[in-house]
Design brief:
With about 450 residues, the protein is of the alpha/beta class. It has helices at about 20-25, 30-40, 40-50, 65-70, 95-100, 100-115, 130-145, 175-185, 210-215, 220-225, 225-230, 265-270, 295-300, 315, 320-325, 340-355, 360-380, 385-395, 405-430, 430-440; strands at about 80-85, 120-125, 160-165, 205-210, 235, 235-240, 240-245, 255-260, 260, 280-285, 295, 310, 330-335. Helix 16 (about 340-355) packs antiparallel against helix 19 (about 405-430), helix 17 (about 360-380) runs parallel beside helix 19 (about 405-430) and helix 19 (about 405-430) packs across helix 20 (about 430-440).
Protein backbone atom coordinates (compact mmCIF):
# COMPACT_ATOMS: atom_id res chain seq x y z
CA UNK A 1 0.00 0.00 0.00
CA UNK A 2 1.25 3.45 -0.90
CA UNK A 3 1.33 5.39 2.35
CA UNK A 4 2.52 8.69 0.92
CA UNK A 5 -0.63 9.71 -1.00
CA UNK A 6 -1.62 13.26 -0.14
CA UNK A 7 -5.16 14.31 -1.04
CA UNK A 8 -5.53 17.31 1.28
CA UNK A 9 -1.98 18.41 2.08
CA UNK A 10 -0.23 17.85 -1.28
CA UNK A 11 0.31 21.60 -1.81
CA UNK A 12 0.42 22.76 1.81
CA UNK A 13 4.12 23.69 1.76
CA UNK A 14 3.93 25.86 -1.36
CA UNK A 15 4.74 29.47 -0.34
CA UNK A 16 1.64 31.66 -0.55
CA UNK A 17 -0.77 28.71 -0.99
CA UNK A 18 -3.23 30.51 1.32
CA UNK A 19 -3.77 33.13 -1.43
CA UNK A 20 -6.14 32.71 -4.36
CA UNK A 21 -3.46 33.37 -6.97
CA UNK A 22 -1.04 30.67 -5.78
CA UNK A 23 -3.84 28.17 -5.01
CA UNK A 24 -5.28 28.67 -8.50
CA UNK A 25 -1.88 28.07 -10.14
CA UNK A 26 -1.64 24.80 -8.20
CA UNK A 27 -4.89 23.59 -9.81
CA UNK A 28 -7.26 25.14 -7.33
CA UNK A 29 -10.90 25.70 -8.33
CA UNK A 30 -10.62 23.29 -11.27
CA UNK A 31 -13.17 21.14 -9.44
CA UNK A 32 -15.59 24.08 -9.30
CA UNK A 33 -15.27 24.59 -13.06
CA UNK A 34 -15.78 20.90 -13.77
CA UNK A 35 -18.67 20.51 -11.35
CA UNK A 36 -20.64 23.58 -12.39
CA UNK A 37 -19.96 23.44 -16.15
CA UNK A 38 -19.92 19.70 -16.85
CA UNK A 39 -21.79 17.89 -14.08
CA UNK A 40 -25.29 17.84 -12.63
CA UNK A 41 -25.84 17.99 -8.86
CA UNK A 42 -27.00 14.37 -8.96
CA UNK A 43 -23.78 13.29 -10.67
CA UNK A 44 -21.68 14.99 -7.99
CA UNK A 45 -23.62 13.26 -5.22
CA UNK A 46 -23.11 9.95 -7.02
CA UNK A 47 -19.33 10.49 -7.22
CA UNK A 48 -19.19 11.26 -3.50
CA UNK A 49 -21.17 8.06 -2.86
CA UNK A 50 -18.76 6.04 -5.00
CA UNK A 51 -15.80 7.47 -3.08
CA UNK A 52 -17.01 5.85 0.14
CA UNK A 53 -15.71 8.81 2.13
CA UNK A 54 -16.95 8.76 5.71
CA UNK A 55 -17.54 11.78 7.94
CA UNK A 56 -14.19 12.95 9.29
CA UNK A 57 -15.60 14.76 12.31
CA UNK A 58 -15.82 11.60 14.40
CA UNK A 59 -19.01 9.73 13.56
CA UNK A 60 -17.66 8.13 10.36
CA UNK A 61 -21.07 8.11 8.61
CA UNK A 62 -20.88 7.79 4.78
CA UNK A 63 -20.93 11.34 3.40
CA UNK A 64 -22.66 10.54 0.09
CA UNK A 65 -25.44 8.70 1.90
CA UNK A 66 -25.94 11.68 4.21
CA UNK A 67 -26.22 13.94 1.18
CA UNK A 68 -28.81 11.65 -0.43
CA UNK A 69 -31.07 11.97 2.63
CA UNK A 70 -31.50 15.72 2.05
CA UNK A 71 -35.19 16.56 1.57
CA UNK A 72 -36.00 18.68 -1.49
CA UNK A 73 -39.43 20.26 -1.04
CA UNK A 74 -40.45 22.85 -3.63
CA UNK A 75 -39.92 26.50 -2.77
CA UNK A 76 -37.92 25.78 0.41
CA UNK A 77 -34.24 26.78 0.66
CA UNK A 78 -31.56 24.19 1.45
CA UNK A 79 -28.41 24.82 3.44
CA UNK A 80 -24.94 23.39 3.76
CA UNK A 81 -23.24 24.05 7.09
CA UNK A 82 -19.56 23.30 7.62
CA UNK A 83 -18.86 22.21 11.19
CA UNK A 84 -15.53 23.89 11.99
CA UNK A 85 -16.16 24.06 15.73
CA UNK A 86 -13.52 21.37 16.41
CA UNK A 87 -13.79 21.26 20.19
CA UNK A 88 -12.71 17.67 20.86
CA UNK A 89 -9.68 17.68 23.19
CA UNK A 90 -6.67 16.36 21.31
CA UNK A 91 -8.01 17.36 17.88
CA UNK A 92 -6.61 20.27 15.87
CA UNK A 93 -6.43 19.09 12.24
CA UNK A 94 -9.35 21.24 10.95
CA UNK A 95 -7.73 24.32 12.47
CA UNK A 96 -4.49 23.37 10.66
CA UNK A 97 -6.32 22.92 7.35
CA UNK A 98 -8.26 26.18 7.52
CA UNK A 99 -5.21 28.20 8.54
CA UNK A 100 -2.95 26.86 5.80
CA UNK A 101 -5.34 25.93 2.98
CA UNK A 102 -8.42 28.15 3.32
CA UNK A 103 -9.19 27.99 -0.41
CA UNK A 104 -9.36 24.18 -0.32
CA UNK A 105 -12.26 24.43 2.11
CA UNK A 106 -13.88 27.26 0.11
CA UNK A 107 -13.63 25.19 -3.09
CA UNK A 108 -15.12 22.19 -1.30
CA UNK A 109 -17.97 24.34 0.00
CA UNK A 110 -18.78 25.61 -3.50
CA UNK A 111 -18.80 22.13 -5.06
CA UNK A 112 -20.81 20.64 -2.18
CA UNK A 113 -23.31 23.52 -2.07
CA UNK A 114 -23.92 23.17 -5.82
CA UNK A 115 -24.46 19.42 -5.41
CA UNK A 116 -26.98 19.99 -2.62
CA UNK A 117 -28.81 22.90 -4.25
CA UNK A 118 -27.84 25.31 -1.49
CA UNK A 119 -27.62 29.01 -2.36
CA UNK A 120 -26.46 30.10 1.07
CA UNK A 121 -23.94 28.12 3.08
CA UNK A 122 -22.18 28.62 6.39
CA UNK A 123 -18.80 27.82 7.94
CA UNK A 124 -19.25 27.71 11.72
CA UNK A 125 -15.80 28.26 13.26
CA UNK A 126 -14.92 27.79 16.93
CA UNK A 127 -15.23 31.21 18.58
CA UNK A 128 -11.69 31.21 19.98
CA UNK A 129 -10.21 31.03 16.46
CA UNK A 130 -11.03 34.55 15.32
CA UNK A 131 -7.83 34.84 13.30
CA UNK A 132 -8.96 31.78 11.29
CA UNK A 133 -12.31 33.50 10.71
CA UNK A 134 -10.42 36.44 9.20
CA UNK A 135 -8.31 34.11 7.01
CA UNK A 136 -11.45 32.44 5.66
CA UNK A 137 -13.23 35.76 5.07
CA UNK A 138 -10.26 37.01 3.08
CA UNK A 139 -10.26 33.82 0.99
CA UNK A 140 -13.99 34.21 0.35
CA UNK A 141 -13.47 37.78 -0.88
CA UNK A 142 -10.70 36.60 -3.22
CA UNK A 143 -12.87 33.80 -4.60
CA UNK A 144 -15.78 36.20 -5.07
CA UNK A 145 -13.59 38.72 -6.91
CA UNK A 146 -12.53 35.93 -9.29
CA UNK A 147 -16.12 34.97 -10.05
CA UNK A 148 -16.23 31.72 -8.09
CA UNK A 149 -18.70 32.99 -5.47
CA UNK A 150 -21.69 35.29 -5.48
CA UNK A 151 -24.18 35.76 -8.30
CA UNK A 152 -24.09 33.72 -11.52
CA UNK A 153 -20.91 31.74 -10.75
CA UNK A 154 -18.86 31.25 -13.95
CA UNK A 155 -21.91 32.29 -15.97
CA UNK A 156 -23.80 29.17 -14.92
CA UNK A 157 -26.78 30.87 -13.34
CA UNK A 158 -25.88 29.32 -9.98
CA UNK A 159 -25.68 31.72 -7.02
CA UNK A 160 -23.93 31.05 -3.73
CA UNK A 161 -23.41 33.23 -0.68
CA UNK A 162 -20.84 31.88 1.79
CA UNK A 163 -20.91 33.13 5.40
CA UNK A 164 -18.30 32.54 8.11
CA UNK A 165 -19.87 32.51 11.56
CA UNK A 166 -17.84 32.54 14.81
CA UNK A 167 -19.16 29.95 17.25
CA UNK A 168 -20.30 30.23 20.83
CA UNK A 169 -17.11 28.80 22.31
CA UNK A 170 -18.79 25.65 23.63
CA UNK A 171 -17.94 21.99 23.04
CA UNK A 172 -21.64 21.18 22.73
CA UNK A 173 -21.85 23.39 19.62
CA UNK A 174 -19.85 20.74 17.78
CA UNK A 175 -22.98 18.54 17.93
CA UNK A 176 -24.77 19.29 14.67
CA UNK A 177 -28.18 20.29 16.03
CA UNK A 178 -26.67 22.40 18.84
CA UNK A 179 -24.55 24.05 16.15
CA UNK A 180 -27.70 24.89 14.18
CA UNK A 181 -29.34 26.34 17.30
CA UNK A 182 -26.25 28.50 17.88
CA UNK A 183 -26.19 29.55 14.23
CA UNK A 184 -29.77 30.74 14.62
CA UNK A 185 -28.67 32.92 17.53
CA UNK A 186 -29.97 30.69 20.31
CA UNK A 187 -28.28 28.82 23.15
CA UNK A 188 -26.41 25.78 21.79
CA UNK A 189 -28.71 23.05 23.09
CA UNK A 190 -29.01 19.85 21.03
CA UNK A 191 -32.41 19.17 19.49
CA UNK A 192 -34.48 16.04 19.83
CA UNK A 193 -34.34 13.90 16.69
CA UNK A 194 -36.38 13.24 14.59
CA UNK A 195 -36.83 15.46 12.70
CA UNK A 196 -33.25 15.21 11.48
CA UNK A 197 -31.45 18.22 9.96
CA UNK A 198 -31.81 16.70 6.49
CA UNK A 199 -35.57 17.33 6.83
CA UNK A 200 -35.72 20.28 9.25
CA UNK A 201 -32.38 21.83 10.05
CA UNK A 202 -31.26 25.44 9.88
CA UNK A 203 -34.29 27.76 9.99
CA UNK A 204 -36.43 24.59 9.84
CA UNK A 205 -35.20 23.96 6.29
CA UNK A 206 -33.39 20.88 4.88
CA UNK A 207 -29.73 21.08 5.94
CA UNK A 208 -26.54 19.05 5.61
CA UNK A 209 -23.86 19.48 8.29
CA UNK A 210 -20.38 18.22 7.34
CA UNK A 211 -16.94 18.48 8.91
CA UNK A 212 -14.12 20.64 7.47
CA UNK A 213 -11.98 17.66 6.46
CA UNK A 214 -14.95 15.89 4.86
CA UNK A 215 -15.81 18.89 2.67
CA UNK A 216 -12.15 19.52 1.78
CA UNK A 217 -12.02 16.08 0.14
CA UNK A 218 -14.71 16.87 -2.43
CA UNK A 219 -12.49 18.79 -4.92
CA UNK A 220 -10.19 15.75 -5.26
CA UNK A 221 -13.20 13.45 -5.70
CA UNK A 222 -14.56 15.66 -8.50
CA UNK A 223 -11.18 16.01 -10.23
CA UNK A 224 -10.23 12.33 -10.08
CA UNK A 225 -13.53 10.49 -9.62
CA UNK A 226 -15.12 8.67 -6.73
CA UNK A 227 -13.86 5.27 -7.85
CA UNK A 228 -10.24 6.47 -7.79
CA UNK A 229 -10.74 7.81 -4.28
CA UNK A 230 -12.21 4.46 -3.19
CA UNK A 231 -9.03 2.68 -4.37
CA UNK A 232 -7.07 4.55 -1.68
CA UNK A 233 -7.26 3.14 1.83
CA UNK A 234 -8.52 -0.25 2.94
CA UNK A 235 -11.98 -1.82 2.82
CA UNK A 236 -14.69 0.61 3.87
CA UNK A 237 -12.05 2.98 5.25
CA UNK A 238 -11.38 4.74 1.95
CA UNK A 239 -9.08 7.67 1.29
CA UNK A 240 -6.73 9.44 3.65
CA UNK A 241 -7.23 10.80 7.16
CA UNK A 242 -5.76 13.77 8.97
CA UNK A 243 -4.43 12.80 12.40
CA UNK A 244 -3.74 15.35 15.15
CA UNK A 245 -0.87 13.76 17.06
CA UNK A 246 0.19 14.93 20.52
CA UNK A 247 1.49 13.59 23.81
CA UNK A 248 4.80 11.93 24.68
CA UNK A 249 5.97 11.44 21.10
CA UNK A 250 9.03 12.73 19.30
CA UNK A 251 7.21 14.26 16.33
CA UNK A 252 3.86 15.85 17.32
CA UNK A 253 1.81 17.54 14.61
CA UNK A 254 -0.81 16.95 11.92
CA UNK A 255 -0.28 13.99 9.59
CA UNK A 256 -2.19 12.91 6.50
CA UNK A 257 -2.10 9.13 6.46
CA UNK A 258 -3.55 6.58 4.08
CA UNK A 259 -6.22 4.67 5.99
CA UNK A 260 -4.97 1.16 6.67
CA UNK A 261 -1.47 2.27 7.67
CA UNK A 262 -0.12 -0.16 10.31
CA UNK A 263 -0.36 1.33 13.79
CA UNK A 264 3.22 0.29 14.57
CA UNK A 265 4.53 2.15 11.51
CA UNK A 266 2.53 5.27 12.34
CA UNK A 267 3.65 5.23 15.95
CA UNK A 268 7.32 4.40 15.57
CA UNK A 269 8.63 5.29 12.10
CA UNK A 270 10.59 8.50 11.58
CA UNK A 271 8.20 9.43 8.74
CA UNK A 272 5.43 9.81 11.30
CA UNK A 273 5.51 10.07 15.11
CA UNK A 274 9.05 8.78 15.66
CA UNK A 275 8.10 6.75 18.72
CA UNK A 276 7.90 7.66 22.39
CA UNK A 277 10.40 10.19 23.79
CA UNK A 278 13.81 8.74 24.63
CA UNK A 279 14.12 6.71 27.80
CA UNK A 280 10.40 5.99 28.07
CA UNK A 281 7.87 3.48 26.75
CA UNK A 282 4.27 3.63 25.58
CA UNK A 283 1.67 3.06 28.27
CA UNK A 284 -1.65 4.04 26.70
CA UNK A 285 -3.19 5.69 23.67
CA UNK A 286 -6.29 7.76 23.01
CA UNK A 287 -6.64 7.23 19.26
CA UNK A 288 -9.52 9.46 18.22
CA UNK A 289 -9.95 12.36 20.63
CA UNK A 290 -10.73 12.41 24.35
CA UNK A 291 -14.20 10.88 23.97
CA UNK A 292 -13.05 7.50 22.62
CA UNK A 293 -12.06 4.57 24.87
CA UNK A 294 -8.44 4.60 26.04
CA UNK A 295 -6.33 1.55 25.13
CA UNK A 296 -3.26 0.11 26.86
CA UNK A 297 -0.20 -0.25 24.60
CA UNK A 298 -0.60 -4.02 24.07
CA UNK A 299 -4.19 -3.68 22.79
CA UNK A 300 -3.27 -0.64 20.74
CA UNK A 301 -0.60 -2.46 18.73
CA UNK A 302 -2.54 -5.71 18.39
CA UNK A 303 -6.18 -6.76 18.54
CA UNK A 304 -7.35 -9.23 21.19
CA UNK A 305 -7.02 -11.90 18.47
CA UNK A 306 -3.35 -11.07 18.02
CA UNK A 307 -3.70 -9.34 14.64
CA UNK A 308 -1.67 -6.22 13.90
CA UNK A 309 -3.80 -3.12 14.44
CA UNK A 310 -4.26 -0.71 11.50
CA UNK A 311 -5.16 2.98 11.40
CA UNK A 312 -8.66 2.41 10.03
CA UNK A 313 -12.23 2.66 11.31
CA UNK A 314 -12.69 -1.12 11.35
CA UNK A 315 -9.32 -2.20 12.76
CA UNK A 316 -9.27 0.28 15.66
CA UNK A 317 -12.81 -0.72 16.65
CA UNK A 318 -12.04 -4.45 16.40
CA UNK A 319 -13.08 -6.13 19.64
CA UNK A 320 -15.69 -3.49 20.46
CA UNK A 321 -15.35 -1.49 23.65
CA UNK A 322 -13.90 -4.37 25.72
CA UNK A 323 -10.68 -4.50 23.66
CA UNK A 324 -11.02 -1.85 20.93
CA UNK A 325 -11.50 1.88 20.49
CA UNK A 326 -12.52 4.31 17.71
CA UNK A 327 -10.73 6.35 15.05
CA UNK A 328 -13.14 9.20 15.85
CA UNK A 329 -11.89 12.62 14.84
CA UNK A 330 -8.26 11.47 14.70
CA UNK A 331 -7.20 13.21 17.92
CA UNK A 332 -4.27 10.93 18.72
CA UNK A 333 -2.79 11.28 22.24
CA UNK A 334 0.12 9.02 23.24
CA UNK A 335 0.98 8.57 26.92
CA UNK A 336 4.17 7.10 28.35
CA UNK A 337 4.64 5.37 31.71
CA UNK A 338 4.85 8.68 33.60
CA UNK A 339 1.17 9.36 32.90
CA UNK A 340 -1.24 8.98 35.80
CA UNK A 341 -4.33 7.41 34.23
CA UNK A 342 -6.50 8.42 37.20
CA UNK A 343 -5.44 12.05 36.90
CA UNK A 344 -5.90 11.98 33.12
CA UNK A 345 -9.40 10.52 33.47
CA UNK A 346 -10.31 13.10 36.11
CA UNK A 347 -9.09 15.85 33.80
CA UNK A 348 -11.26 14.56 30.93
CA UNK A 349 -14.24 14.35 33.31
CA UNK A 350 -13.72 17.94 34.43
CA UNK A 351 -13.95 18.98 30.80
CA UNK A 352 -17.16 17.06 30.04
CA UNK A 353 -18.85 18.24 33.24
CA UNK A 354 -17.98 21.84 32.37
CA UNK A 355 -19.17 21.47 28.75
CA UNK A 356 -22.46 19.65 29.40
CA UNK A 357 -25.36 21.86 28.30
CA UNK A 358 -27.39 20.59 31.26
CA UNK A 359 -30.44 19.71 29.19
CA UNK A 360 -30.47 15.98 30.05
CA UNK A 361 -30.44 14.86 33.69
CA UNK A 362 -28.15 11.82 33.18
CA UNK A 363 -25.46 14.02 31.62
CA UNK A 364 -25.99 17.11 33.77
CA UNK A 365 -25.85 15.14 37.03
CA UNK A 366 -23.74 12.18 35.96
CA UNK A 367 -20.79 14.17 34.61
CA UNK A 368 -20.67 16.09 37.89
CA UNK A 369 -20.75 12.90 39.94
CA UNK A 370 -17.97 11.33 37.89
CA UNK A 371 -15.79 14.41 38.28
CA UNK A 372 -16.35 14.50 42.06
CA UNK A 373 -15.64 10.78 42.56
CA UNK A 374 -12.51 10.91 40.38
CA UNK A 375 -11.35 14.01 42.28
CA UNK A 376 -11.85 12.06 45.50
CA UNK A 377 -9.76 9.11 44.29
CA UNK A 378 -7.02 11.31 42.82
CA UNK A 379 -6.70 13.36 46.01
CA UNK A 380 -6.44 10.44 48.43
CA UNK A 381 -10.03 10.25 49.71
CA UNK A 382 -11.41 7.43 47.59
CA UNK A 383 -12.85 4.09 48.65
CA UNK A 384 -12.90 0.78 46.77
CA UNK A 385 -16.65 1.12 46.22
CA UNK A 386 -15.98 4.35 44.29
CA UNK A 387 -14.55 2.37 41.37
CA UNK A 388 -17.75 0.39 40.82
CA UNK A 389 -19.76 3.54 41.47
CA UNK A 390 -17.98 5.22 38.55
CA UNK A 391 -18.72 2.26 36.29
CA UNK A 392 -22.38 2.33 37.35
CA UNK A 393 -22.73 6.09 36.75
CA UNK A 394 -21.11 5.73 33.32
CA UNK A 395 -23.64 3.02 32.41
CA UNK A 396 -26.51 5.21 33.59
CA UNK A 397 -25.35 8.07 31.35
CA UNK A 398 -24.51 6.07 28.22
CA UNK A 399 -27.34 5.97 25.68
CA UNK A 400 -29.70 8.03 27.83
CA UNK A 401 -29.10 11.54 26.50
CA UNK A 402 -30.36 13.59 23.55
CA UNK A 403 -26.88 13.96 22.07
CA UNK A 404 -23.64 11.93 22.27
CA UNK A 405 -21.93 14.19 24.85
CA UNK A 406 -23.11 11.85 27.59
CA UNK A 407 -21.50 8.89 25.82
CA UNK A 408 -18.36 10.95 25.25
CA UNK A 409 -18.12 11.59 28.98
CA UNK A 410 -18.87 7.99 30.00
CA UNK A 411 -16.61 6.05 27.62
CA UNK A 412 -13.22 7.41 28.82
CA UNK A 413 -14.10 6.65 32.45
CA UNK A 414 -15.43 3.15 31.78
CA UNK A 415 -12.47 2.21 29.55
CA UNK A 416 -9.87 3.62 31.97
CA UNK A 417 -11.26 1.47 34.76
CA UNK A 418 -11.58 -1.53 32.44
CA UNK A 419 -7.91 -1.45 31.44
CA UNK A 420 -6.24 0.26 34.40
CA UNK A 421 -8.32 -0.78 37.40
CA UNK A 422 -5.16 -1.67 39.33
CA UNK A 423 -4.04 1.96 39.09
CA UNK A 424 -7.33 3.19 40.55
CA UNK A 425 -6.99 0.64 43.36
CA UNK A 426 -3.40 1.79 44.02
CA UNK A 427 -4.61 5.37 44.48
CA UNK A 428 -7.14 4.21 47.04
CA UNK A 429 -4.74 1.91 48.91
CA UNK A 430 -1.90 4.46 48.94
CA UNK A 431 -3.59 7.85 49.43
CA UNK A 432 -0.46 9.64 50.69
CA UNK A 433 1.71 8.54 47.76
CA UNK A 434 -1.11 9.35 45.31
CA UNK A 435 -1.48 12.83 46.77
CA UNK A 436 2.27 13.44 46.52
CA UNK A 437 2.26 12.23 42.92
CA UNK A 438 -0.62 14.59 42.19
CA UNK A 439 1.31 17.47 43.72
CA UNK A 440 4.16 16.76 41.30
CA UNK A 441 1.77 17.06 38.36
CA UNK A 442 0.20 20.19 39.81
CA UNK A 443 3.67 21.68 40.13
CA UNK A 444 4.21 21.00 36.41
CA UNK A 445 7.33 19.01 37.17
CA UNK A 446 8.44 16.53 34.55
CA UNK A 447 8.73 12.99 35.84
CA UNK A 448 11.96 11.48 34.60
Amino acid sequence: MANDIKILTEHINIPGIETFEVYRKAGGYNAVEKAIKKMSPEEIVEEVKKSGIRGRGGAGFPMGMKWSFLAKPEGVPRYLVCNADESEPGTFKDHYLMKNLPHLLIEGMIVSSFALGANKSFIYVRGELMYVVRILEKAIEEAKAAGFLGKNILGSGYDLELVVQPGGGAYICGEETALLESLEGKRGNPRNKPPFPAVKGLYQSPTVVNNVESIANTPWVINHGGEEYAKIGIGRSTGTKLISASGHIKNPGVYEITLGLPVDEFMNSDQYLGGIRDGHYLKAVVAGGSSVPILPANLFYKTANGEDRLMSYESLSDGGFPTGTMLGSGGFIAMDETTCIVRNTWNFSRFYHHESCGQCSPCREGTGWMEKVLHRIEHGHGTMSDIDLLVDVAKKIEGNTICPLGDAAAWPVASAIRHFRDEFEWHIKHPNEATKLGAVYMGAEILA
